[in-house]
Amino acid sequence: MTARPPLIVRAAVAADAAAIVALIRRLAAFERSEMMPALTEGAVLRDCFGPQPKFSVLLAEGDGRLRGGVVLLDAYSSWAGKPAMIVHDLYVEDGARGRGIGRQLLAAAARLAVERGCCRFDVTVLSWNRPARAFYEGLGFVALEEWQPYRLDAEGLRRLAGAPRGERA
Predict the structure, then answer these.
(1) How many CA atoms are closer than 13 Å to the CA of 8, on its beta-carbon side?
(2) Integer distance in angstroms from the first to the last C-alpha of the chain?
């Protein structure tokens, strides 16, 4: 039996923009999303690798190919007076699940959060995704039953901001 090559978790670089878009599209398909993500390579280049990054990505490579990735958002806790980190998207290819790749991605992200002085590490999980919930709980994440997420979509954001319909918020 031949040994499997080691998994490498690394920070994404601009040349990974297309792979990041593909990863997010595979995640949307897995989540049975009715909408395809609007993310483009141009948006990744601008918002992940531009002068004012809005997110960062760690990628997992194994067996000579991309196996998964995690999209991270910087946040801030006004209560703690310290930075925080949010796992926005975590995806591991179907055929690679169960091999510890998700755990390795999150461990690398946790190291990054510690380096940045973060006071916490947050993730939001779809309520129907019981395997993901069990995975996060197994790593020590705790469901916050007292917190209910709310969201304002783009149209609601424009309405609240007082912007005319069709105008960018």
Answers:
(1) 10
(2) 57
Distance between CA atoms of residues 144 and 47, nearest Å: 29
Quote the CA–CA distance of 41 and 31 in Å, as a whole number. Answer: 21
pLDDT-derived band at 168, boundaries 50, 70, 90 = low
The CATH number for 65's domain is 3.40.630.30
b/e 1-13 (16+ beta carbons within 10 angstroms → b)? eeeeeebebeebe
104's enclosing H/E stretch is helix 101-115
SS (H, E, C) 109-125: HHHHHHHCCCCCEEECC
Q: Is the dihedral of CA 47, 48, 54, 57 positive or negative?
A: positive
Question: How many domains is the chain built from?
Answer: 1
- The SS3 call for residue 137 is helix
Quick one: tokens of 131? 């395997």
> Which range marks the domain in which residue 140 is found?
8-161
Domain-embedded: residue 169: no
Task: Give the other-Cβ count within 10 Å of 66's Cβ.
Answer: 18
Q: What is the pLDDT of residues 38-62, one digit of tens each?
A: 999 999 999 999 999 999 999 999 9
- Note every long-range contact of 128-132, with CB atoms under 8 Å and residues 24 or more positions apart, other chains counting: 129/31
